[in-house]
Design a protein that fits this description.
heterodimer, A: alpha/beta, ten-stranded mixed sheet, 20 strands, 18% helix, B: alpha/beta, six-stranded mixed sheet, four-stranded antiparallel sheet, 9 helices, globular
Chain lengths: 377, 258
Amino acid sequence: MEAAVLDELLGGSAREREESWRYSKNAIRALTQQTFTLATPDAALSAATLERIDLPFTRGRRIVIVNGAYSERYSDTGKLGSGVRVERTSAQHLNVSIAAATDGPLHLAYVSVPADTASRWQAVGEIQLHGARARLIEQHVGEAGADVFGTLTTKMSLAPQTVLNAVLFSDLPDSVSLLRKSLCTVGAAANYEVTHAHGGGRLQRIESQIDLAETNAHCHCRGVFALRGREHVDIHLDVQHNARDTRSEVFWRGVADQRARGVFHGAITVAVGADGADAQLSNKNLLLSPHAEIDTQPVLEIYADEVKASHGATVGQLDERVMFYLRSRGITAPAARNMLIAAFCREVFDGVADAGLREYLDARLMERLPAAVEDVA
Amino acid sequence: MLKIDNLHVRVAGKEILKGLSLSVNAGEVHAIMGPNGAGKSTLGNILAGREGYEVTQGTVEFEGRNLLELEPEQRAAEGVFLAFQYPVEIPGVNNTYFLKAALNAQRKYRGEPELDSMQFLKSVREKLRVLHISDELLHRAVNAGFSGGEKKRNEIFQMALLEPRLAVLDETDSGLDIDAMKLVADGVNAMRDPKRAFVVITHYQRLLDYIVPDFVHVMVDGRIVESGDKVLALKLEEHGYAWVAGRHEPNQIRAGAA
């Protein structure tokens, strides 16, 4: 890949990049040494993909982006209503403006479709929430084949007093890499609630910067990654308290099996003058194999005086006492293991407002659990 | 039903059971008493199949099978149940889900049809009624945030639901007040059956006022040193364990079951 493209993709100085990518160095190096052509924007989707992006609770409010470009033929926007405006400033640049609440969640489905050889796409999304309470689903899926490298830059802004309940999930084949950078600016007394669920892919790097820009801004960020094979997911959260009485809660769980690699970097910065800030970060991880690795790095930087902050991060294994307890009741070892892993991850989905979506995410998660899931109940 | 012969067990390199022998027939209730460190809990754990216990000598037969070669889940499905001294908390796993998974896994192992939700809940409600347990317990995560008494009652409830052939109660009375202990005893007594046996491990005689045993065994230093009927428990209560230990010099006795 050309140096200029790379600079744009990765950002920062060489030194900053070295630090920021330290746990994903090899994965990104392999990608940057590969040659990519530009992906086909209007690629056809398989029936299986269409089924995966067809969520019953978002019909009529679904925007489909294929290889970075808005897809007229697959989007289904009949029920968006007058409160939502979708504009394209270019093929790869989407601008969504929400002024009034919709009946159900707005669904952005990003699909990576392979070409004959390795290909890449780049897209930009802007989402503005004005005076409403909205729900948003951002889904990333892909079709197996030649390598695809997608890059999405998202800018979100929440006007004062608004609430955005967002769910961001990915389930990618091991030929697809995704680099997603987002900046979310939260206005006065606005509330950004986001739940992440990531799995699959060759390399997924999710960078999320949350700017609590005005008084009483609040964000609640939950997330989970469940990895197996040689999957590699690298989460970079950067929560910035830039005003008085701002509040952030970060609650992440990670599971890695086989040779998978998970990275969680959670940074919280309380700026000078952001007194009354309340920041909590919790990250717990489960390692299921001696060859899997999870690196967790909570970083707390506080430059204000009156601040409440706590953070904790752990990496552990399944509790043998609990395993024995379940098995002593007749539950087989693989079923007991999955029961405990699911319980560990599931807490993250408490933040998902729709019951239908919560069940959907739970079912996807169960599919991703390491051992074959027995029908236990 | 259960035949333990000259069992020697090491835990972390230290010999805990030193030639324990015990025979239990269907329909019998055996109480195992003894001072702290005698190896009572080790006996429960070894029967249920906990890892980390090394059998260096002796045999354990259950219904004619070598119990020691079975996995914990196989033992459960064969009918062995251990009521834990310290039941573990499992946040995030719903009690109903857990119980149904356990019951159906056992039924599947035995080649019996699995219960659907309706049949399962019917069975659960019956047991709850017998044990005077609120069905609120079903909606909570397994033992999570339960009081000591609730945890022990949940053990007995699981036993009632799983209907084992051999139930081993490991100090189920410890930490219980008298009312909770009566409830636990009622639960056990309701399950006494000619086809079912109980091994009740306890530190104190008090529980045996409510669960009246057919046999009482005294365990000291890794083996049974004296066996008798319920009168033995009363004598122990009166004289203390030093009384038994003083009557039997180690290595001189090989007491089996009555």
